[in-house]
């Protein structure tokens, strides 16, 4: 694995772990996730989202 790919892998894994911890925290506090969807600020119930997410190239 090249150094660039290795760094990318570590960054993606860190982002996935951060998302997991955020969802856990929001569930514990019973607090909505606040996101921008189609230019609108929306609140999402943390119990309505997946507890983990996998990064896929080409998203976003």
Task: Provide the spatial order of strands within the biggest beta sheet.
Answer: 1-2
Approximate helicity band:
40-55%
- Assign the structural class, choosing from mainly alpha, mainly beta, alpha/beta, alpha+beta, or little secondary structure: alpha+beta
In angstroms, what is the radius of gyration?
14 Å
Cα-to-Cα separation, first versus last residue: 25 Å
Shape: elongated
Helices and strands, in N-to-C order? HEE
The pLDDT mean sits at 90
Number of domains: 1
> Main β-sheet, in a few words?
2 strands, antiparallel
Give me the number of helical elements.
1
Q: Which range does the strand content fall in?
A: 15-25%
Q: What is the β-strand count?
A: 2
Low-confidence stretches: none
Q: What would you say about this model in short?
A:
This protein has 60 residues and is of the alpha+beta class.
Provide keyphrases for this structure:
60 residues, two-stranded antiparallel sheet, 2 strands
What does it look like?
The chain is α+β, with helices and mostly antiparallel strands. The protein has one domain. It has one helix at 3-29, and strands at 33-37, 40-44. It has a two-stranded antiparallel ribbon. The two termini are 25 Å apart.
Element layout with pairings:
Blueprint (H helix, E strand, L loop, with lengths): L2 H27 L3 E5 L2 E5 L16
Antiparallel strand pairs: 1-2
């Amino acid at each position: 694995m090249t150094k660039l790919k290795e760094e990318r892998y570590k960054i993606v894994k860190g982002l996935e772990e951060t998302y997991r911890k955020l969802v856990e925290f929001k569930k514990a506090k019973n607090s909505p996730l606040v996101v921008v969807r189609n230019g609108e600020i929306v609140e999402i119930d943390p119990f309505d989202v997946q507890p983990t997410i996998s990064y896929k190239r080409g998203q976003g």
